[in-house]
Amino acid sequence: MDLSQFRRDYLLGGLSRKDLNPDPQKQFSLWFEQARNTTAIPDPTAMTLATVGPNGQPSQRTVLLKYYDEKGYVFFTNFESRKAREMKENSRVSLLFVWLDLERQVQINGISERISTAESAKYFMTRPKESQIAAWVSSQSHTLSSRQILLQKFQEMKTKIGEGKVPLPSFWGGYRVVPEEIEFWQGRKSRLHDRFLYTRSDSAPSGWAIERLAP
GO MF terms on file (predicted)? Predict the structure, then answer.
């Protein structure tokens, strides 16, 4: 299938150096709030997480950002999943937010680290009960012979828990990505896009150096 003519121009606006906040976390917060308030973007928290396996093979998947602050960007998963196993071996990861209706994307490169059990428990208790139960019954990324078996395990656990509280699984919790680089990309006409890269720098007043990159 030839897709060479499948294209559109990006005309919504541009991004100037003078418009950037010196702190990339604050710049991200501004863009995130704009994405959240754009009805055409149903899930602005969706982000691609890229990890690298021991054989050098990258892998990607979509995860959901659950909260962020000056320390980094937090998501949750099973500690026995492929991404968790790969992060244990190589903590360097990359996140990518794509908000095409705003003609924007944000790439975050940094170091992943497990958050505390207390932090994980605090979030776990906010999840719908059936989502809590699902965390118990899914051996994420492992081979599953049939969906029926998964549903059966779910129903068995649901019956076992009954009206009681669902405890935090010891094999489930959160990771924080501590950023070392953050790139903001804004689409522009004729593919002359705007790209600005923040890199941690002890010599910069804000702690971050900012450079414009060629598109």
Answer: FMN binding; pyridoxamine phosphate oxidase activity
